[in-house]
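Page header: ASSEMBLY MODEL / two components / 520 residues total.
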Amino acid sequence: MPEWTFARITDRGVKPALFALCLVPITLLVWAAVTGRLSANPLEDIRDTTGIWTLRFLLITLSITPLRRITHWHSLTRFRRMLGLFAFFYAVLHLVTYVWFDQFFDVSEMIDDLSKRRFIMAGYASFVLIVPLAITSTKGWIVRMGGKNWQLLHRLIYISAAAGVLHYFWRVKLDISRPAIYAIILGALLIFRVLRKRRYGANIAALCSLF
Amino acid sequence: MLIRHTAEIRSSEITPERIYQNRREFIKASAALLLPAIQSQRSPFDTTETVTPYQNATTYNNYYEFGTARDDASKNAVNFRVKPWTVSVEGLVKKPATYDLDTLIGGLSLEDRVYRMRCVERWSMVIPWRGFPLAALIKRLEPSPSARYVEFKAILAKDQMPGQRSRFLGGGLDWPYKEGLRMDEAMHPLTMIATGIYGKPLPNQNGAPLRLVVPWKYGFKGIKAIVSLRFLDKQPVSSWMESWPEAYGFYANVNPNVEHPRWSQSREQRIGETRNLFLGGGVRSTLMFNGYADQVSELYAGMDLRKNY
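Prediction written out in full:
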């Protein structure tokens, strides 16, 4: 009879449930496509949905540490890798949408796009920066690299997320309120870390009460 | 030996019983659909390209007054009041006045015209408009010879238009929406004022009760729910020029060689033809002046279209 520890319950129960939950956005998208309930411009629907969920998963991944500190629910860390990989998953779908459906593999057109438009550059940068994180996400790689180096490498997620938000910021036409919401959340998540590093315990409490 | 015979008539080809039983109604309905097409003459300006499904043209709209999401207008414009409607005619014109819509356009003969429409955001449609040439209306209004431009204003109705109340919903433009044309553009036979689409009155989300249609220009030039025409001797400033001059100029002619800051304009997604994205479905090359170069390029002879975008 196995012992039903808390860790076991999260691994056996919560994790698969969370996994399924993370698949909801893509499931809904595929379902809408299959049943013909996408808008008149399916390309736009797929592009925007995968893009926004990449950004959301990046921010959700980044919120695990602050959430753990606040709630003292340390098992939250168990979900971080999976959430990060889902950010990567949606990023891949987003990129595939651009390369395949939007540009239809027109390399010269894509190079042109990349060289002329900073929002495309920011998008590529955001993607390229999380590729090594996805590759080295296994336990084997933590051992091979050593915890310190691994952790250092995985700080790239901050830059990737910032580039992702910038990508959104530079993409919108006039009203910036939507990307601004993402920028504020990212800012708060980063400030939390900076303040904590500086051991301003009181400030963290104040900050927490703000959000 | 058993030889299997496939059925000679595939099940997909068999008319469902329900339709068979109602075949007389079905024939009547089909005939009714054909009738207006027989009655109305084909316009020489008609494109023969496949018309965009009505459903798409009436649910996929950029009408920021009702919200920036494409389906916002079809949802939020349901109760928009288009009666009574008045249009004020101002500026360098014989009789500046505010007209009731029926007085303003009464007696102008309606025509059906199938035009391509290219949105600045890289999508396009083919729409059967019903309306009259703007030139016919302008002649009726008798502008003075010094009038060189027409400025159009759309309705300001914050109580009815959520996008005008909130920057978040309305995309951050200043309201009311403004557009303009040079007089020769306004008088061009292709330029029309639409009061209907697909042989029906204009739905609210498509710009009821009257909107501008300039098929060789990007869709945003086609100002909807017009309440004012002003004749000027100076070039007016449109809403998009005001908000983002680097991206939107006065002319806004469809031009595959002049890029938007955010995207190339060399290709477009034809709405309704995007079925097989895996095979690059629905993406096509954008044509100079949206395919109306033969009719309109002389309007811009000698002009640098890279500067006058």
